[in-house]
Structures are given as C-alpha cells and as structure tokens.
Amino acid sequence: MTARVTDCGGSPSLTHPSCCVSTGGGGKRKGRSKKWREILRFPHISQCVELRSSIERDYSSLCVKQPIGRELFRMYCETKPKLKNCVRLLDAMDQYEVMPDEKRRSHGEEIVCRFLTTQVPRGLSPCKEIFSECRKALHDYLSGTPFMDFQDSMYFDRFLQWKMLERQPITKETFRQYRVLGKGGFGEVCACQVRATGKMYACKKLEKKRIKKRKGEAMALNEKQILEQVNSRFVVSLAYAYETKDALCLVLTIMNGGDLKFHIYNMGTPGFEKERVQFYAAEICCGLEHLHRESIVYRDLKPENILLDDNGHIRISDLGLAIKVPEGELIRGRVGTVGYMAPEVISNEKYAMSPDWWGLGCLIYEMTAGRSPFRARKERVKREEVEHRVMEEQEEYGSRFAEDAEAICRLLLTKDPKQRLGCQSDGAAEVKAQPFFKNINFKRLEAGIEEPPFVPDPRAVYCKDVLDIEQFSTVKGVNLDQTDNDFYAKFSTGSVSIPWQNEMIETECFKDLNVFGPNGSRPPDLDWDQPPEPPRRSFLDRILRRNVRSLVLDLCTLLIFQASSITSHIFTQNRPGFIGLTRLVKPASVFQY
User: Fold this and answer.
1) Residue 442 in contact with residue 100, Cβ under 8 Å?
2) Strand order in the sheet with 494-495
3) Any idea which residues are catalytic in this one (predicted)?
4) Which of 56-65, 98-107, 199-208, 473-482 comes out lowest in average pLDDT?
5) 584 partner at 20 to 30 Å CA-CA among 24, 208, 443, 545?
6) Burial readout 454-464 (b: 16 or more C-beta within 10 A, e: otherwise)
7) Is 208 marked within a binding site?
8) Secondary structure element (H or E) that encloses residue 315, with its range
9) Please, is 196 exposed, middle or buried when counting C-beta atoms within 10 Å of its C-beta (0-12, 13-18, 19+)?
10) Average pLDDT over residues 315-327
C-alpha cells in the first residue's frame, strides 16, 4: 500500500511504496494501547475549575463547530421534550440538504407536515429558503436559555473533562512510531499511530538544526498555523504539533491512494473519463472554497499535490506556499510550479485568490487531455518558453473535451484575472454553477456521502518508483539558543481541537468513555461534592514503595533490637535510665509509615 503524506517548508509531497501501512481492519477499536482507558481517564470535575472559568462561552463554537461539544449538547437536548423536537427538526433539515433531487420535495413536505404545520400557511411548498430561515431561527433560540441551562448541566461538565484530555501534553510517547515513508526539505516522514485510539497518521519531523541552518522558521510556522486554521474534508488536516529534543513534529492525515499525477499517467491511457474529472474537480473546488473562506490562497495546485484516500476521495496537500491574504489587500509573490503558475504570478503582479482558479483550470485540462495545457508530457523545454506560452499562447482543445469541459477550462484559463471564472464576487459559487458540474450534488459531496467513481485497491501500490530513502547529512556548526526555544513554544501547541475530537468520535473512544450514572445521574467523577479518587500508582511505583516499606521495617526492627539490648543493660545498672529510654523509643509509633 502506498503511504502518501504532505510535506512542510515548500518541498514536495512524499510517497514510499514499500511501506505497508494499514489504516483499517479489525474494527474501530483496533490498535488501542492496553492502557488506553488510563491514558484517557477523565479528571475529576473539581480539577476543571480553572477551565470552567476561562473557557469561551460561545454557542457556535461549543455546540456547532466542536464535534464533542455538539454531541453533548444534543444529549442534553434529548432530556428536554421541547428541545428534543428542535434537534430532530435540525436533523431533518440536514437530511433535506443532502437528499437526491428526486426525493427532496417529498422529504421537504414531510418536514412541513411533521414540524411546521401549525406555523406555516397551508399549501406552502418546501424550498431551501424556508428551511434556511427556520434553521437560523432554531439556532437563535437554542443559543439563548437552552445554551445557558446546558452550561449548568452535567453534560457541560463532561465537555470540560474532554477539553482537559484534549489539552494534555503531547510527546513522542503519545504515538507508536513506524517505518520511514520518505523525506522532505527539513527531515523525515514516518507513519505513526496514536496509542490511546489506534488512529494512523503521517508524522513529518522537521529537524531543529536544519530549520535554523536554512532559516526556515517562518515558513514552517506559517504552514503549521494555516493547517491548524483550516478544517475541511478536502484539505489535509493537522491533528497534533509537538517537539522532541531534535525535531519539531507535525502529525497529519495519512493518504494511501497515491496522487493524481500517478493516476493520470500510470493507469492505462493518460487522463480520466469525464465522470472522474468532474468528481475530483468538484472536490478540489470545495477545498479551494474552504481555504478562500479563511482568506488563504494556496498557490501550488498541481496533480502531485492532490492525494487520494482509501475510499477514493481527494485532499489538497502540501501547504508550504499557501499564505493568508490580509482583508481588503492584495499580495505579490512569484511562487509556484512552472507550467501551473498564473500569468499574474509570472509577471509579479498583485493578486488575491485568482492563481488558484487558474490552477483548477490547469488540473481539469490535464485530467481530461492527459497532458498539461502548456507543455507536453516529458517535453524538454526551458522555463522561459513555458512562461511565454502561459502569457501569450492559447491552449488547444482536442476531441477528448466535451463542450462543457472546454467551456469551463477556457473560463478558468482566462489570462486576465479580472475576467477569470471564480475571481468575481461570487467566488466558488460561480464555478460550481457551471454546466460542467450539473451532475454534482455539492451538498452531498461536502457531507462526504457521494460515492467516488474510483476506489483504490488496498493491495495495489500507487507509485511508479521506490524512493531511495537516505539519511540526511549531519548539520554542523549550528547551535540552538533561547530564541529558538521561543519559536518552538509557538510551534509545539499539542492537539488541534476539531481533528482531536473527531478522532475520539471516529475511533469510538467517545462512545466507550462517555458514560453517565444510572437514570441519568451524575457519575462520581462529575460529582462536585465527592472528592476525587487518589491517583493510581504504577506497578513499578507499587513495587518500589513495597520495597522501601520493607527496608524501613527491617531497619526499625534492628533499632528496636539494639534499643532492647541497651535498655536491658541500663535496667541492670540503673532502673531510672531504662524508664527514660522507653519513653524515647516507642515501638507503636515506629511502624506508622
């Protein structure tokens, strides 16, 4: 199986086909440490007092965006009949959004009849606008008194316990480290597994001295912060960031299906059938939309950076060149990959998100034609010539392009960014509305329930060559100081909230641990009036403690024996002295340990 991971610092993504890394099988509980319950043991609620007073009390963050917060708020609502109906109405509207078009109307009518009959005029047809307003009204209601009452419930206290676990220090001991998958600009990439949950990731290790030697601190921190900010099923996620003595570590989504470049050129005739092009282009479009929503321009869209997971869905990887665009401003930067850089990037003009829509046009063209728009496969041509073609020449379209495929490529590959598709006020919505995507249900796609047209074979190796993974040369003459430690503290922030909570739910740790008392009562760890249990001592600690106790007892016995000998002597010589000594040595107190 190919293990495909993202890189940091602007270097290319890496694959190593000889590394068989299994991410599934054996149930969701497979791979957990025998001590997983101890690792994820809830602190007593009395230990959450500081967090309780400092945590942000925002309804949207706690009850909508954070997966565990959302689940616990739902559990609280299920205990209140009125709130239970609110939650069920929200669920029904969510289902309506992802229904196939032919079933949507009947499902909408069912929602109206079941939940809204007394509140809407007779004969009103369901539509997205009605449910959008209804959804907003529901959340406005739930964010009021119900949210305030939730914060006084045991469900909110349990949320605090989960947040305490989420904030536990992350070290190399959090993971099992597996074989090296490849190497990037600053260090190795290896597969790793979280001991507590069994979830597999890719760990990118950035050598501290190598970062300092190449002055890569800003680049590494920039990518880490961007990955941390983005929460999208179409962009590789950052789950943990921690440090060891010699390295900074990014723990990222592991992708096993290979990259689009391999699939385009090494799986038969170069290029894909139209259905596959549409599916990948739609998911890439969603990924770009999520990045742009956070004011992030990606700037390096190419087949090598689009990775497939086990199920055939894609994610955008390698955010080394991505950058946040300040609100209301434009940026300048001549970065990217030759043949995929937009004209405004080549000419070093200012831009915002326009290079990414050009890149999408290049990808749709290449997936369809089996070659990039401005350079033939394996064509030997200088950089200057490729850039001249991008700036001056019109791409050619052959018989493999259907009318709608050619149309969207021409619109995305418009050389003037002001006229380019996606660069107007509607952004991604304008791209999604193109006839090319008429068969794509974007709501279902974003919910992850659209079936991919191709699913990777778990026994196949989706990589052409075995990479020669060599050791890095020693970094000499580089010394680390306090300034470096300040940078490491900014980098090593531990768990990333939403990916961590998703991991707990996906691996069923949440289900196994989120247990309450009988009849909905508070369990002991949530009882404010019950003192916390004393911490459990390790086996080694108990052995050492037992040995120390035995040693002390032996020593006390020896002292008492010697004292007895002395007192016997004193008794025969001087009876008052014996009385004084017996007051000094009290056997009953000696054995209190």
Assistant:
1) no
2) 175-183, 188-194, 200-207, 247-252, 238-243, 494-495
3) 300 (proton acceptor)
4) 473-482
5) 545
6) bebeeeebbbe
7) no
8) strand 314-316
9) buried
10) 94
DSSP-derived secondary structure for 145-183? HHHHHHTTSHHHHHHHHHHHHHTS---GGGEEEEEEEEE
Largest CA distance in the chain: 122
Please report how the helices 575-584 and 539-573 are oriented relative to each other, as an axis angle in degrees rounded to 10. 170
Strands 200-207 and 247-252: antiparallel
540 confidence band (pLDDT: 50, 70, 90): low
Quickly list DSSP for 437-459: GTT--HHHHHTT-SPPS----TT
**Phi then psi dihedrals of residue 17, to 5 deg:** -70, -15
The residue behind tokens 């929503």 is: 293
Question: Hey, what are 536's tokens?
Answer: 């459990």
Which residues are annotated as catalytic? 300
Cα–Cα distance for residue pair 106/125, rounded to 1 Å: 10
pLDDT over 60 (residue 6): no
Q: What are phi and psi of 297, to 5 degrees?
A: -100, 130
What secondary structure does DSSP assign to 362-385, as a single string? HHHHHHHHSSBTTB-TT----HHH
Give the Cα separation of 286 and 282 in Å (integer): 6
Side-chain-side CA neighbours of 446 within 13 Å: the count stands at 16
In degrees and rounded to multiples of 5, residue 209 shows phi and psi of -70, -35
For the chain, how many residues are written?
593
What mean pLDDT value characterizes the chain? 86
Amino acid, res. 91: D
Q: Please answer whether residues 68 and 162 qualify as being in contact, where contact means their C-beta atoms are separated by less than 8 angstroms.
A: yes
Tokens of 549: 């106790």
Q: What is the pLDDT of residues 420-477, one digit of tens each?
A: 999 998 999 999 999 999 999 999 999 999 999 999 998 887 765 545 445 555 566 6
Single-letter amino acid code for the residue at 410: R
Closest to 19 (Cα-Cα) out of 175, 256, 179: 179
